[in-house]
Amino acid sequence: MSLLQWKDEFKVGVAEVDHEHEQLIGLINELHKTMQASGDFEQILDSLGEIYAQISAHFALEERMMRKSHYPAYAEHKEDHETLLDDLRDIMDDVEDDGIFDETQLSIDLNRWFSDHFRTHDAKLHQSGHG
To answer: Exposure string (b/e) for 43-69, b if CB count within 10 Å is 16 or more?
Structure first.
């Protein structure tokens, strides 16, 4: 079973952004499947690295769009991006250093971060006509 389902409420109406959001959900679901199936440490680390790389690139795209349009809530949105990346980096470090991960907690965190971020910050950004 997938951890995250793509929902219309995640759509922000910008094809490029929506596509990247869908890809991120796919990567998160793959990681979830790996954790449930094998719990293979190296595979989990690779998946986390891939998610981190995609999210970094996605956030950079959004931040470029915000700067270009002089988005008024840029600082707050960027801060949320940095918090998410820091949290994910901490999880990756824990997995790498200790060789352990809490599948349930990781799944809860990923679900919460992206659902909340898509629904709040990204929805506000793109519905305001900025981006």
So the answer is: ebeebbeebbebbeebbeebeebbeee
